[in-house]
Here is the input.
Amino acid sequence: MSERGGLWRPLENPWVYEAFHHLIGARRWLRRFATDVVRPKAGDRILDIGCGPGALLRYSNNVSYIGLDRNEAYIERGRAEFGTRGTFVCGDVADFNSFGLPRVDIAVAIGVLHHLDDELATNVLKSTYETLKPGGRLVTADPCVHPEQDALQRFVVSRDRGMHVRPFDQYAEICQSSFDNPVATYSRGYAPFPYSICILQATRPPELR
Here is the structure.
């Protein structure tokens, strides 16, 4: 993974990370994202790739949750807050195939792909495809460059912690190596933070009978 240090380094602490996301309105965005886009059903098994401290689980009731993140402090914070409500795995997405993860109904990757170069992003998406059950869904969200964004939004995404913020169309292009017909949607983050987001959705085809 590729990310900037410097002023971003304090976000490696889960308490700072959570406080920052509350401050910029990301938690309000996440609540709406979970309800309107992820749409988990009772009994679904969800894989949250790059889960951080597991905030998505707050808005996903009665599911079987697996959170994956390479930051051990995030993982320990998730385990402390959610206990048996979720399973938290500490590891890098580059080692995705070594974790022995079960098949899932929904795989979510929020703010992950823009930390990965094209080769690693492609490999992670292929591994995610194999982890999904037939008919299972992939949902991602990442900052992007888009013709409709204003100068401030473009400035903000250009200074993101992740070093591979892509033009809007390129996220779907990378996804097409593993999924047929991924659908990309442009979204803006909540005030006060002027973010530009590419939401990507794709489905593993159901098995033919």
